[in-house]
Amino acid sequence: MAVEPAALGYGPRTDAVEKVSGAAVYAGDITRPGMLHARLLRSSVPHARIVRVDAARARQVPGVAAVLTGADLPADREHWRYGPILRDQSIVATDRVRFVGDVVAAVAAASLEAAERALAAIEVEYEELPAVFDPEAALAAGAVVLHPDPNPEEMPGTRPQHGTNVCGLTELVQGDPDTGFAEADEVIEEVYRTPPSQHCFLEPHATIAAWQGGRLTVWTCSQTPFLTRRQLARLYRLSASHVRVVVPYIGGGYGGKTNLRLEPVTSYLAKLTGRPVKLVLTHSEVFHTVTKHGSTVRIRSGITRDARIVAREIDVTLDTGAYADTGPQVAKKCTYTAAPYRIPNVRLRSRCVYTNNPPAGSLRGFGLQQVAWAFESHMDTLAGRLGVDPLEFRRRHLYEEGDRYVTGEPLHSVGLRECLEAVAKKVGYGTPLEQTPGRRRGRGVSIAMKGSFVPSTAGAWVKVNEDGSVMVAAPTPEMGQGSRTVMRQIAAAVLTVPLERVHMAPVDTDGLPFDDGAISSRSTFSVGRAVQDAAENVRQQLLDMAARHLEASAADLVLEAGAIRVKGAPPAMEIPDLMRAQMGRSGTVHGEARVRTFGGRVEENGEAYEVSACFWFIAAGAAEVEVDEETGKVTIRKYATASDVGHALNRSTCESQIRGAAVIGLGQTLSEALRIEDGQIVNASFSDYRIPAFGDLPRQLDVVIVEVPHRDGPFGAKGVGEVAVAPAAAAVGNAIRAATGVRITAPPFHPEVVLRALRESSK
Amino acid sequence: MAVEPAALGYGPRTDAVEKVSGAAVYAGDITRPGMLHARLLRSSVPHARIVRVDAARARQVPGVAAVLTGADLPADREHWRYGPILRDQSIVATDRVRFVGDVVAAVAAASLEAAERALAAIEVEYEELPAVFDPEAALAAGAVVLHPDPNPEEMPGTRPQHGTNVCGLTELVQGDPDTGFAEADEVIEEVYRTPPSQHCFLEPHATIAAWQGGRLTVWTCSQTPFLTRRQLARLYRLSASHVRVVVPYIGGGYGGKTNLRLEPVTSYLAKLTGRPVKLVLTHSEVFHTVTKHGSTVRIRSGITRDARIVAREIDVTLDTGAYADTGPQVAKKCTYTAAPYRIPNVRLRSRCVYTNNPPAGSLRGFGLQQVAWAFESHMDTLAGRLGVDPLEFRRRHLYEEGDRYVTGEPLHSVGLRECLEAVAKKVGYGTPLEQTPGRRRGRGVSIAMKGSFVPSTAGAWVKVNEDGSVMVAAPTPEMGQGSRTVMRQIAAAVLTVPLERVHMAPVDTDGLPFDDGAISSRSTFSVGRAVQDAAENVRQQLLDMAARHLEASAADLVLEAGAIRVKGAPPAMEIPDLMRAQMGRSGTVHGEARVRTFGGRVEENGEAYEVSACFWFIAAGAAEVEVDEETGKVTIRKYATASDVGHALNRSTCESQIRGAAVIGLGQTLSEALRIEDGQIVNASFSDYRIPAFGDLPRQLDVVIVEVPHRDGPFGAKGVGEVAVAPAAAAVGNAIRAATGVRITAPPFHPEVVLRALRESSK
Questions:
Q1: DSSP state, A160?
Q2: How far is CA B365 from CA A349, B49, B330, in A?
Q3: Within the 637-696 window of chain A, which residues sit less than 8 Å (CB to CB) from chain B?
Q4: Rounded Cα–Cα distance for residues B19 and B25 (Å)
Q5: B681 CB contacts (<8 Å, ≥6 apart)?
Q6: Mutate which: A215, A245, A275, A586, vs B, most B CBs within 10 A
Q7: Which among B113, B283, B288, B317 is least surrounded, fewest beta carbons within 10 Å?
Q8: For B379-409, how does the pLDDT look when each residue is reduced to its tens digit (9 = 90+)?
């Protein structure tokens, strides 16, 4: 990596013109011949037994091709039950509804209007059941159990506790926590909470399903095309080769478009009617489809007089709503991200709990968001108690290269210190602050660290066309993150051809190698590496071809600026010349690569540990805030966000990823929260649910790219998508505390919340 | 090949249900968001200078997005000139029109109706030029030259004669023809003709073009997706990676859907308007798009008293109409297929000539059809002259394995004798015929032999999914020939998995390796072999994985019935178990293969020859006819058709291919011909142009599959698509001659033609 390949480090998004000109095609734009339109009837009650669904009148509505109710599903539950962790969801409700918004019936009709008319004609009789909206209450003895029958596990190992509302449980212990606490000079315990919130992607969920020749094709906005394929194949008892998942551009995903969403109901309606079926949700429906887990984090630390943390215990409770979705994984990540500092004795536990709220799943930086808010607020509490500067207190506990994580695994490529120091400097941490009467200013910092999941499988292929131009096939949907630009850059860099002669094959499970999906910030690291390896394979084939043509040894040849030369000699021939010479006007050179990162238990030199991450994503945030003591309004004057990207393959995309993540974090910090009253979301629209407007954002918003190369990433690169979300809340909360001395225990920091806290503290 | 793999030799077409249920999607079914509809304005005169095209009123028609006339094209002709051999066609006419139907202007509008209204509003002023409709006249000195400026060569080597109407010339000489003729006891010369005709596919040409992000995508019914991609890339001066060609099911091609058809005009309109543009021709327009070459074949043979042919000369003139299309290639094939017998001294020449008729191109068995009619009729003339039975006369001259063709190349897998004997037997050749007064009966035989082109490039990949199911990517469009069934069978056979767990990726140039296309009956042989090799590659990877898992040597393992076993031991594990064990629930095993068959001049042991074929397709036909002496009506009582398929991978598909080809041949024999009067096709519809109805076909139509395995084909298979068309005309013509003693020199054998010939002979 002495010389940066020409294709890297710069360059506009290759999808930019298409998107700003409106030419880009999303799932909702797609039509199919003879297509029907679907609409869903949703439960108006949070928890009920379905006594009766009468669809007779709906079926008579002109243009209606099918009405699907629970009674129409086959007797064998395995034919309609699905879910990424537990198969606890059904295509439409059968015996029960479990949240306001649960799907009771589905209609496919020749027009949206006919479908709507049919929905209005369906009569549903409910027998309401006791509902539970608070996870603590759901855990209490005697609480109503949402899923009394155990649901089969799609992904084993998340420990659902049958007969209770706990659908996922993770525990992790390192060292000897009891002894650690006993040896502490002081034990400090706090409780932090986060509210449920929403992804707020601009593109609502949209899917078209069609059966042809016994095969199912779905065009869908899925971040996980191959997991979607696998789960659909299971649902219909087909082989994976019977299912094709095509993913056009996605208008934002942030974790909300993983696994199955509209694919089961659209494909079932398509099967019933023998025609393609399209379903695009309204934004209000999107709010009810998947949310971010509200959380309660109890955190307890044992500290010593010399400012060391010797023991920690964290207990996380997540409200996963009516269905598990990815909740048990989120709970697991709460545990596995709860310890970004060197603390010798640790006990971590997370539980994922069913309630009659709308289901919660993955949202950018899942798990980490909830616990980082808690442990990074708690760090300032501890530092304050010890009389140590919070930045300095963090410095003493930061992980370094080669340190062992709480799982015992050795850490590699951890730019925590670089990120933290960079953001602190950007906001002038430690320099004097001008204070105005009634307007308190303060600064705070925060870090976050999360491992991208293991085991991880990625694949890609690269082909050189007869004219030397290049096609790259990488199964990463483009959801705004710029992955498809970076994949092109990687192939262009390896093959030393201009970026504009490199293009991408569509995301289509038929034609691509298996990949786990555009999740866990893994695309650049895993898929990008597969693209790099595939391109290297092609490069070697070209050199071998050239060696035959030039009657030289391949080992003496190099590929530079699209031309092959004997080392030290002038260019002998360009790639298109070589292709022509060896293949006439026909033929492609094709290379494939597969990257698999294993995880789990490792034994090494008699020592056992767990590999929980294929790489670590690392971020820090720092804020300078001003709190209006009269109104409670918090103004973020400066915010700095840094992320360790390993190696920036495209600086502008890295910057916009980090900035975008920080803005989501700041939104969740300042204003975003779902208001759910008796199970009913009361702000399920963009007018009532406040995402940050430009005026809400800091005037000074600095993005710092930190590069601590990773040995396994393409050109040293790591993922950058999500981690910068997590530090925002604690950085701002710590700055508020620094400004006012008041600790607020749950975002968002609405003025009324801040004002109440200020008033209570001054009582 | 001792044991036939389970997946081969049987099985229904995998696309059958989809097609008979109407679910199959063709290009005309595809829609794109914001799509416009195109219509074309066509010339009403055969040859004219365009004085003026006034589109001002047309542009004002509500809904019209663009009107394209020659004046709107850029000054540089390279931006709008295209063609598979010579770039002599333009997107719309610029200075001249050259046939009735030539495209003068194109409209893209929001609806078909608006487009039609705009067409009607375009005013064109022509200055008519002298037109020539007969190739002999077009060759005469002083004839009007259709393309006075030389057109650039897209495919070099076809020898256009600039300044004349000859756009392609092939000559081939073997031995010493002059001496051969001098040594002959007698020289017999005849002239045979064939009329122009039509492909009559059920699906008209249909294309949708869209530009996105600087890339062009076309969804089109193209038999040659990669050649289409290459030619579009050239037209727009883009790299191949900028162009994506997607081919859904094709409703019949027969050579008429090769190279560029509607892609240039739709893509140009899409570029102009910034919106997707769709164009579907009417059937009448299809008749004007590409036809089969009418031909004149002068054939001259030197024979000896002991019934040997010692010299032959053939001179072919093809009417290629206003544009060359593939005409020069057709002319070349006339030459290269003109000598399917051992004749020591041969002089062959073919010329392709421009006229002001609609353009002619490839039609199933092109070149061969025209010359086989001639040389196989001529064989019976010679046999008659020599007093030898025509079947016996053929037997003496048939090529055998290892013989040298007229090019000097050694022949392999030539089941000529097997085909000929089989069909002769089926129609009872040589057994007595019952003759009724006024109804003359007779029998005739005919053979045909054609080489599939070289050099040929094919590619494919195969992947095994995480559940052991299989995806095959083979770039062969499915146009009714059943290729996609056979490709699945080949992969299933190699991997020993059930056919229903093997599926095909879509035909999409983005995702597939280069391939020359579904032409020249090459798909099974070339692409099938690539699929076989790719599957073998995957099989080896699976064995290697199993070897690691079982701690065995891969060389000791076999894959049988989807399970891996140590040779001689019971099955150790099935493929899905192996995948799970080695890859968890993720990952695919991918294998790719490329098959390239070289052609051209070879020097071997001091001897030079030309390799002109990657394999030979071989057929024979035999007919028993009854001629009504009063009406001239010819009834084919029996017809037998045989083809050497190498090895039948799917017997029912082979049979239907051979039968279908024979039926096309019989149609051209009995009824099909374009009637062109002063350049105007007067029967450009299915009601006026007679394809055979079931009642026109022989009561007894026998299909014989001959299997002479080819060393390079998958499991020994060769192509089977087109050759059985060619023997029909001569077999029937020879039977008519046998019945009546009258030789008719041009099909189709309409009753009035036969009657006239009978009357003239009895004068």
A1: -
A2: 74, 36, 9
A3: none
A4: 9
A5: B100, B101, B287, B288, B358, B674, B675
A6: A586
A7: B113
A8: 999 999 999 999 999 999 999 999 999 999 9
